[in-house]
Amino acid sequence: MATSELSCLVSEENCELREAFWAEWKDLTLSTRPEEGCSLHEEDTQRHETYHRQGQCQALVQRSPWLVMRMGILGRGLQEYQLPYQRVLPLPIFTPAKVGTKEEREETPIQLQELLALETALGGQCVDRQDVAEITKQLPPVVPVSKPGTLRRSLSRSMSQEAQRG
C-alpha cells in the first residue's frame, strides 16, 4: 500500500510582546488501497493458467487544526467530520486549598520585595498586565475527579447479579 503525506508548519513571532506561536500537523494523507468488491479471478484448468486482478482506489484524509477532518475516495467527493474538542494541556491534578483575595494573603518576603522593586526600576513591568481574577475567568471550570472505588463497586454488583441469573 503506497502512502503520501503532506505536513504543514506555521510559526509566528512577536518580539515586542515576547510571544511566539508554533504549530505543525499532518495535513493531507493519500494512500492507495485495494478496492473492496472489485477483483477478478480467472482459472483455466486445461491450460494451467490463472489470472487475478485487484482494483485499487486512492483514499484521501485531510486534517486541520480547527478539528475538522475530511475523508473519502479521490474523485468521489469527501465527507467532512467535526472532531470532538480535546484538551491539549493535562487536567489539573489538584486545586489550591485556599484561594483568597489580596487582603487575605501573607505579606511578600523582603528579598522578593527588593527584587520586584529592582525590576520596576529597570522597567520590567509588563505592558499588557492582567489581574489574576481576569486570567482565572478565562480558564475552563475545574471538574472534580470521581472516586476510583465507585466504578469498581458498580462492576462487582453487576457481576454478582449475572452470577445469580446463571
Describe this entry's structure for a reader.
It is a single chain. This protein has a five-stranded antiparallel beta sheet, with no helix packed on it. About 20% of the residues lie in helices and about 40% in strands. It contains three helices and five strands; from the N terminus they run βββββααα. It has about 170 residues and is of the alpha+beta class. The two termini are about 50 Å apart. It has helices spanning about 110-120, 130-140, 150-165, and strands at about 5-15, 20-45, 50-65, 70-75, 80.
Determine the mean pLDDT. Answer: 76
- State the helix count: 3
Total number of strands: 5
The helix fraction, in percent, is 10-25%
Principal-axes shape call: elongated
> Low-confidence runs (pLDDT<50, min 5 residues)?
151-156
For the biggest β-sheet, the strand order reads 1-2-3-4-5
Distance between the termini: 48 Å
Outline the biggest β-sheet.
5 strands, antiparallel
Query: What is the beta-strand fraction?
Result: 35-45%
User: What's the Cα radius of gyration?
Assistant: 30 Å
Features:
166 residues, alpha+beta, five-stranded antiparallel β-sheet, 3 helices, 39% strand, elongated
Brief synopsis:
The protein has 166 residues and is of the alpha+beta class.
Topology:
Blueprint: E1 3-14, E2 19-44, E3 49-63, E4 68-73, E5 78-82, H1 110-121, H2 132-138, H3 148-165
Antiparallel strand pairs: 1-2, 2-3, 3-4, 4-5
